[in-house]
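Q: Hi! Curious about what Cytochrome c oxidase assembly protein cox11, mitochondrial looks like structurally. Here's the sequence.
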Amino acid sequence: PHSARIEFERFQAAARQRNVSGILYVGSFVVFFVGVSYAAVPLYRLLCKRTGYMGTPKTENVVMDAESLRPLEGHRKLRIKFSGQVSTMLDWSFRPEQRQVTVVPGETALAFFKAYNNSDKPIVGIATYNVIPDQAAQYFNKIQCFCFDEQQLDPKEDIDMPVFFFIDPAFADDPLMDDIDTITLSYTFFKALGR
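A: Let's find out. The predicted structure is below.
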């Protein structure tokens, strides 16, 4: 009986050790995936900014010399159209000041959007953007933009917001861009979380 009791206690100690190990493994697994889920959005956003993936214009600081930012003479004109929308949760009006501009790759351009707070209280908004068609986004470079910056408008206040951009001259060398003559830059304003 004494050896059976010792054997039973060893069995219980081994079972406790396995349970503790299992809990530590599961806990580590949960902590790891919670960390990955928090990092997913910033990592995805970084991927999109660097590559132009999913219609996100490149916003990474790229060193371009003055020679590469000259308009490509003889290249067909590209029509850049602008679009502005507002979430139903945001009591603003938002629209482009001009519907479109015409540029060639390498040419810089400036466009303005106007936002107006229709409400009787200050509201903070934040804009996201997209480029259509998606495959042209990798060549759409914004030098200055209001996107992802919180914008506060007081009651009945309006503001002009500039976008300074260029189409990378490499656009002209990409055979997949041969059929693209129109590119649309679209912004959507949302109410800032917690504001």
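A: A fun detail: Strands lie at 78-86, 92-96, 100-103, 108-117, 123-132, 140-144, 151-153, 158-167, 182-191.
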